[in-house]
Each structure stands twice: as C-alpha cells, then as structure tokens.
C-alpha cells in the first residue's frame, strides 16, 4: 500500500518545527551569517542565543533525531527524518540547533558503530551533547573522489602510531576538539584494506593547519573560512586511538557517507522549497510591462519547472528513505547514489532560477539566494562528485542486464510480430 499521509501527532511536531525554524533559526542565519559561527564554540555571543534554543529542541524530543534510541535519539526512521530534515534544511543554523550538523552527525554515527567504550565516553558523549565539534580528515590535496590515491600514512613505533601526511578540505579543523584521520597503515593489503582510521585530539603536537580555503561566498582573506588544509607532521597517538579494525577505514568511511549523502539531499529539498517560496512571492509582487512577473509566461515556465523538478527529487529522496527503513542494510545503496547524482542538478537549476527572478537583488548577499546558489556546486562535489554516483547507478543496473539472444534486441518488432502470429494467427484467418 502506498500512503503519503502523515500521522496527526507527527504532523504536530512538524508544524512546531516549521514555525520554530522560520522564527528562530532563520533569524540566527542573518545575525551570524558565517558558516564558522556555527562551529566556533568560543563564539560566546552566538552560543548565548543558541543554547536555550537547543534546550527547547531537547525538551520537545527533537534533538539529534538521526540517532537511534540507544544513543539518545528518537529513532524516528528515515522517512520521518526526511520530513524533519526538509524543515531543518531551510536554515544554515537549524542543524546546529537540532543537534544534527555535519560532519559531527556522521562522526557520531561511526563512533557509535565502531568505537570502543572508552572512545565513546571520551568523544561521542560530548559530541552528542553539542559541547564540542569534530573534523573528518579524509580528502587529500592530490586525491578526493578516489580514496585509493591517498598517501597520508601511519606506522607503528613502539606503543604508538605515527601519522604523517597532508589532508585537504578537513571541514572545521580550526574549531574541532578531535580529528578522525584516514591513513595508509597496511600498504601490502588489497586496495580497500590498506587504510585505518584514527581519533586524534586537536591539541596533539604536530597538527598544522596550513590554511583554510575560503568557499565561494566566504571572505577572500579566509577570516571565516573553515575548510582546513592540514598537515600531520609525525603526529603520535596511542595504539588505542584506532577507530575500527586495522585496514578497515574504507568500511568505516562508507558507513558514514551513505547517511550523510541522503541527509544532505533531504535538507536540500527544504532549502529549495524556500527558494520556490521566494520565487512565488516575487512573482506576485513585482510588475513589468504592465503586469506582474508571474503573469509572464517565461516566468511561469521557470516556476513550473522548479516545482516539478523539486517534487520529482523529493519523491526520490522519500522513496530512498523508505527503502532504508523497510529493507535490509545496504539495499538503498543505488537509490542513495541516484539522489546524490541528481542533487547538484536540481539544486543548481532551481537556485539559479530563483536568483535570476530576483534580478540584481538576487546576486547580492541581501537575500539567502546567493548563498544557496553558491552551495550548489559545493554539494555536487562534497561526499563524492556527481559523476561517481552516476557511474554507480549505471553499473548497478548494467549488472542486471543480459545480452540479446541474437543479432536483434529481444524487444524487436518483426520478431515479436512473428510471436504474435504464432499465438493468434488462427484467429486472424477470414
Ligand atoms: C563543502 C565541502 C566540504 C567538504 N568537507 C570535507 C571534510 O570534512 N572532510 C574531507 O575529508 N573531505 C571533505 N570534502 C572533500 C570532498 O570529499 C571532495 O571534494 C570530493 O570527494 C571530491 O574530491 P576532489 O575535490 O579531490 O575532486 P576530484 O576527485 O578531483 O574530482 C574533480 C572532478 O573530476 C571528475 N571526476 C572525479 N572522479 C570521477 C569519476 N570517477 N568519473 C568521472 N569523473 C570524475 C568530476 O567532474 C569531479 O567533480 C569537502 C568538500 C566540499 C566541497
């Protein structure tokens, strides 16, 4: 049975979230517009405002809803989470206010899955409580989409691991209390079993942030940039700093990325709903050539395309969430790749139309649209570029295909006509 309705009790929660995000989190977005503000625990002014909002979210049982009940979340499941994330996705601050901001949410998940009791106590609990932020340090300057090209390595010396190498785009490195670092430890192993994951405290000697790369709309001087180019200069950590089994970093990373990708997609739906709301308001507010913008057919086409494309994407995301909820672990892999492959296009097309409809105002930073637009190329690359996911989808389906039995396809009209005649020829005689 297919049912698109939402239970009334859950709808009440969504309604509350919707009002709260619009009235509180969206205001935080304009008060503290830099991405850095969300992760800088030393920004006491922002924390003063955010803390009571987080408390309110906790009181309502909506804190860290991506987590199962064993970790203090509600275990709502992915379909409900999709509906919640749509609302959270409207605002840059909302994930922090609701305790589910990346990369901390994914880092918490792998700590919960692969961490020892000591590791959970030291890193997971304060992360879940929103007291610290963390950094996932995997991508390298010379290699991103293909982890088999990574060279940052770690080797054992006595009762320590020594980590040496460079990482690039380690988000929030400058604010993190700890880093999760992927390094080659077993170069002799099969390709996907060469790397291990390490938990490294931020104050460990040898961690050097070379610079923070400013994103499209960050200040060019890098003052609010937080994409760390990090060098690990023979950083020493104890043997028990390894997260997961030796040589199993790839598995740990994969466990983290699937959830991260679909959650980004869920939030992008919400962000684009906001863009469309803005388009609609603009279309019925502004006049040109003696009529409202919305009365011009060219504008109607842009609005219609945006609404239809977002609805298609949203249904794909919801179906993916439903597969995760109802089918065995891993069953949604291809669907997650479909969502991620489509994300960049939908995001960019709708954000571009919304910016364009707002004319000169659209390209300023006086509306949320420019930031949205700048986020599209970033999300098309982060967590793996579009092409990698397209290839994954194609390969999954190609595996299910069988070659045609002869020279012509199975679905070949002349051949099928022969089949039809064999079946019903006797009825066709006069
Ligand atoms: C906003 C943001 C935040 C990030 N945060 C983190 C983080 O916290 N930690 C971290 O470790 N990393 C992070 N990253 C890095 C991210 O994971 C990488 O950017 C991503 O994996 C792509 O790697 P790359 O940038 O080296 O691009 P490349 O791998 O060099 O790819 C560049 C382009 O090459 C093409 N391409 C690549 N592979 C293929 C292929 N197989 N087939 C066809 N074409 C291909 C695509 O057009 C692709 O866009 C972040 C990135 C962004 C944008």
Order of helices and strands: HHHHHHHEEEEEEEEHEEHHHHHH
Silhouette: globular
Strand residue content: 5-15%
Radius of gyration (CA) equals 25 Å
State the CATH superfamily name of the largest domain: Butyryl-CoA Dehydrogenase, subunit A, domain 3
At CATH level 3, the topology of the largest domain is: Butyryl-CoA Dehydrogenase, subunit A, domain 3
Number of strands: 10
Mind telling me which CATH architecture of the largest domain this is?
Up-down Bundle
Q: Helical proportion? A: 40-55%
Distance N to C terminus: 47 Å
CATH C-level name of the largest domain: Mainly Alpha
- What's the rounded overall pLDDT mean? 95
Structural class of the helices, strands and pairings?
alpha+beta
Associated small molecules: flavin-adenine dinucleotide
Stretches where pLDDT is under 50 for at least 5 consecutive residues are: none
* Biggest sheet strand line-up: 1-4-5-8
How many separate domains make up the residues?
Answer: 3
Summed up, the helix count is 14
Described by strand count, sense and barrel closure, the largest sheet is: 4 strands, mixed
């Amino acid at each position: 049975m297919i049912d698109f309705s939402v239970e009334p009790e859950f709808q009440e929660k969504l309604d509350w979230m919707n009002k709260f995000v619009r009235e509180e989190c969206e205001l935080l977005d304009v008060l503290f517009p830099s991405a850095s503000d969300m992760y800088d625990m030393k920004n006491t002014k922002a924390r003063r405002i955010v803390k009571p909002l987080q408390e309110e979210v906790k009181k309502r049982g909506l804190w860290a809803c991506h987590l199962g009940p064993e970790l203090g979340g509600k275990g709502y499941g992915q379909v409900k989470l999709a509906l919640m994330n749509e609302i959270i996705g409207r605002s840059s601050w909302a994930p922090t206010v609701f305790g589910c901001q990346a990369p901390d949410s994914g880092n918490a998940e792998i700590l919960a899955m692969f961490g020892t009791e000591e590791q959970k106590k030291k890193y997971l609990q304060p992360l879940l409580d929103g007291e610290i932020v963390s950094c996932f340090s995997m991508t390298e300057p010379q290699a991103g989409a293909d982890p088999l090209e990574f060279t940052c390595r770690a080797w054992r010396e006595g009762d320590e691991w020594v980590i040496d190498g460079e990482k690039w785009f380690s988000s929030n490195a400058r604010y993190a209390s700890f880093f999760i670092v992927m390094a080659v430890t077993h170069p002799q192993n099969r390709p996907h079993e060469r790397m291990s994951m390490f938990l490294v405290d931020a104050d460990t000697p040898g961690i050097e942030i070379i610079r923070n790369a400013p994103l499209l709309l960050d200040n060019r001087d890098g003052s609010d940039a937080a994409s760390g180019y990090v060098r690990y200069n023979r950083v020493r950590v104890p043997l028990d700093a390894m997260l997961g089994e030796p040589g199993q970093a790839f598995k740990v990373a994969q466990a983290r990325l699937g959830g991260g990708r679909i959650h980004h997609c869920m939030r992008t739906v919400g962000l684009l709903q906001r863009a469309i709301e803005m388009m609609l308001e603009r279309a019925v507010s502004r006049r040109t050539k003696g009529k409202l913008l919305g009365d011009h057919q060219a504008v109607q086409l842009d609005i219609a395309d945006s609404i239809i494309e977002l609805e298609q994407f949203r249904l794909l995301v919801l179906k993916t969430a439903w597969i995760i909820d109802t089918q065995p672990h891993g069953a949604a892999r291809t669907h997650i790749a479909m969502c991620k492959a489509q994300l960049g296009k939908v995001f960019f097309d709708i954000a571009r139309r919304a910016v364009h409809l707002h004319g000169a105002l659209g390209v300023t930073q006086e509306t949320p649209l420019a930031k949205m637009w700048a986020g599209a190329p970033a999300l098309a690359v982060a967590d793996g570029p579009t092409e990698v996911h397209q290839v994954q989808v194609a390969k999954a389906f190609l595996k299910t295909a069988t070659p045609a039995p002869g020279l012509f396809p199975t679905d070949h009209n002349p051949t099928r006509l022969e089949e039809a005649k064999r079946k019903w020829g006797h009825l066709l005689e006069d």
